[in-house]
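Quality-control log, excerpt.
Job 1 of 2 completed; input and output follow.
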Amino acid sequence: MLQVREKLNHQSTVIMFTGRFDRQSTIGIGDLILGTKDMKCQNIILDFMGITGIDSVGLGLLYLWYHKLQPQNIGLSIVGPSPTVRAALADCHLSDCVPVYASEHEAIRQEIYCF
């Protein structure tokens, strides 16, 4: 089961996950991610420090969310993935469009410089 927590930080929404990010566990998560655009935030930071694994459906959802947020000028980034998850993100070239940072602090610092 995927555990999800959410917090506001600057002009970002940080969503923290614990568990496996896969077909079974991500049902309904899209509503949370895409619903943040109504909160007028500029960035969504997905904290993957607690993610133990990701499958192709999870990777596909990340692409989908990125493309749905792009027209609203809402940034999407990922922080703290394990080496295995980071490799999966790189293998499917997701990290080419969704920035991956080591920490939430680094992601927030980057977004401040962008605006």
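Job 2 of 2 completed; input and output follow.
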Amino acid sequence: MYYRLKPEYVLRGWKGSAWVLVKRPENLTQYLTQEKFQTLLLCDGETELSDDLLDSSIKHTLQQCEEEGLIVSSTESFPLDSEQYYKFYNNRHVRSVLWSITGKCNYRCRHCYMDAPKGKFGELTTQEALNLIDQMAECGILQVDLTGGETFIRKDLWQLIDRIVSHHITIGTVFTNGWLLTENVLDAFEARGLKPQISVSFDGVGWHDWMRGVSGAEEAALRALRLCQKRGFQTDVEMCIHRGNVNTLPQSIELLRSVGVENVKVSHVAMTELWQHNSDGNSFTHQEYIEAMLPYITWYYQAGQPIEYLTFSDIIVLQRNTPYRIIAEQCGVIAEQRGGIEKCVDLYMCGSARITCYITPEGRLLPCMPMTASPKQDHFPRVQEIGLKQGLNDSYYMQFVTGRIKDLFAANPECNSCPYRYRCGGGCRATALLEGDHNLMGCDRTRCMMWKNGYVNKIRQIANEAESKYGQA
């Protein structure tokens, strides 16, 4: 009897994650036990597996894999496609890359991380960008999310997308302001068999044009969202909240729901250099932002949970028919799941940076997009200079990504002596760098304020009372 992986499956491995089954075209990953991995290696369609030569354990695993729809059996040999054979990538596993393919933009946003109207970070040449995509494939990157600047302003966009697709890399999310999103753009995606999620910025009814610096921006965003709804493209929205638009939140969410949006992330406007000069008195402190958002936790339940997901950044994740998650205590929750709150010290400083990374328009490898606004970003490597594989193996970037909370505590006596340290885990490194102590290993003062001023318990109390009074949808 011969066994063969089904055509949609490939076997892959990376440093620290050597036994992985990937399902295409979505590039979904399943981390395997050694026994299951070794059994699937035998399922090459060429190795004859006789019952009398197989031990009971392998027989059981083969049966299990057949029941799961991973393999098929045959009395005749039929080899795998060349792409399906096991491939090991000699770098750490990064599942997805958020890539700013350009620093240019057709808007003049008041808060932009990269001062996109002036395009100060520029963009890679076509050849440099194609080479970067090839390097992503050589490192086993499974998904690329595209952003800018404005994604659709790049003239060679479809050439880059075709190169990405040629390597079986999934395009997960495309971020856009919506102005250039047309029927022709969606036709081009569908012609390539692609249906990425479209993420559109929307900063409140009556305020979006002001925030984005272009007359007609609000209608362009809504037109793009309606178009995606009509064409069956999934959408989400990110909303920057400030003193001016905070009261528009219920009206804005109802409007977004009417055009098919079920996932909205609300965030405090980061204190970028541009926002400091252009907020016109609408800037919130973090504490003011939290106070302003607390009533909307109750509103979400009282309104019957009008959308599937509503995230208040730094505060809470609300979801229909699912328990809420308080963002500030997630480190402690994970530690308790792994055997005790003190296990916090063994967690990585940033869990998100373990599975994804960000590449700037100029090719710099960063843990996350907000660090673009930091003067420290120049410490991080440019892919054109050292190569992506080295960047994911031995670079300043890796010093950050591999750092654990115990390293932070060792470098930061204030965090190490804090009574909330195991539940907080030191907070966000980008926030500490940008808005806290301006030190990568400094205190995240937003997280300090939330714990020391009792906001975490207050958030929990409000959410519990709202759930109890209004119930789950």
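Post-run check on job 2. The mean pLDDT is 94.
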